[in-house]
Amino acid sequence: MGWRDRGVQVKTPEQVAVMRRAGLVVGRTLEMVRELARPGLTTGELDAAAEAHIRQLGATPSFLGYHGFTGSLCVSVNDEVVHGIPGGRVLSEGDLVSIDCGAIVDGWHGDAAITIALGDVPEEVATLMRVTEEAMWRGIAAARPGGRVTDISHAVETHVRAAGRYGILEDYTGHGIGSEMHQAPDVPNYGKPGRGPRLVPGLALAVEPMVTLGSAEVDLLDDDWTVVTHDGSWAAHSEHTFTLTPDGGTWVLTALDGGKVVLESLGVTYGGD
């Protein structure tokens, strides 16, 4: 599915409200996992806790069973960029852990990811985490009614490139989201602005830069899911689902505060309740 594809799904305010409920489940689950994660736990234990939490909140995990995926989280460690399958791997002090979570409420999806460090990490790793998260927010902040999808892409890339010599994954992108977890359009993390489908109220997108300390070249492991850097460099991943509201504001559906604090700090009109 290319980013020039049409047929994007535009949601009604009522449908967006349900997506917000799904987004809050995702946001709360990620915060729970952030607090739980520590050296000595396995990635499978984190996953089991996340599944129980999602279900306790009245939602269904988006990832579990998706094309045969066996977890409710993607847990990717160090040189694993995305789509790590939770299991018996034991987390260690100093690990860099990307945690991606999705949830469904009444048929509507939320999707977000965070990257956390377990204990002390080198300064370059801490900076990588910060740059990746900032790039995600710059991408969301670049979205305006009447703009184009690659306005987001350009903002993400511009921030990462200005911060240093990082790799930006090109074959893995953000995406539309709604009644399915992955929909048109794709949202690349690089490119010229002013291209792709037009941004309109009710279009929901997941913006998710995947950034490495080295090359952007990646390999797919034999499990057909886990994406790792080709050169062994460590990677970070940050993601939120957002929409534009009819009043021209921006609402981050998977952020617990709707994105209000960060959006307003970037000069963006907050569009949430």
Explain what this protein looks like in three dimensions:
The chain has 273 residues and is an alpha+beta fold. The protein has a single domain, classed as Creatinase/methionine aminopeptidase superfamily (Creatine Amidinohydrolase, Alpha-Beta Complex). Helix content is 29%, strand content 23%. The strands form 4 sheets. A 5-stranded antiparallel β-sheet has the order 8-7-9-14-15. Strands 1, 2, 4 and 5 form a 4-stranded antiparallel β-sheet that branches. A 3-stranded antiparallel β-sheet has the order 3-12-11, with no helix packed on it. The radius of gyration is 17 Å and the shape is globular. It starts with 12 loop residues before the first helix and ends in an 8-residue tail after the last helix. The N terminus is likely disordered.
Overview features:
alpha+beta, four-stranded antiparallel β-sheet, five-stranded antiparallel β-sheet, 29% helix, 5 helices, 273 residues
Question: Any chance you could write out the topology, listing elements then pairs?
Answer:
Blueprint: H1 13-36, H2 43-56, E1 60-61, E2 73-77, E3 80-82, E4 96-105, E5 108-117, H3 123-141, H4 149-163, E6 167-168, E7 174-176, E8 183-187, E9 204-207, E10 210-212, E11 218-220, E12 227-229, E13 235-237, E14 240-244, E15 250-252, H5 260-265
